[in-house]
Amino acid sequence: MKLLSILRRDERGATVVETAFALPILIILIWMIAQLGLAFRAMAGIQHALGEGARLATIYPRPTNTAIKDKINSKVYGITPGTFTVVEPVEGAGFVTLQVDYTQPTSLLLLPGPTIKVTREKVVWVAD
Fold this sequence. Notes:
alpha+beta, 3 helices, 3 strands, 49% helix, rod-shaped
């Protein structure tokens, strides 16, 4: 009986056990925040590249679609863990629609995470 009461009062090692439960969750949470940061960095690079392509599309005489796509591809940054594709510009009556697609797989260290898929587009009014 006396041994049982001693064991109930003895709290040595409780911190180690609590840390063993909390540490994996904390590490996964920090890893998820880093993955989200990579996605935000990619979105900033995509928006920048799309804006540069839109600026190029507005000049007169209008550049070719290949030149616009090359400009977007050359100005994009921060897309390292994902795949980035520029869709062929769609021409309309006095405007051009520029579109890019981005896909980034994520991981939760030991498990696969969700795949982030984003499409951004800009409609640019062009001079005739």
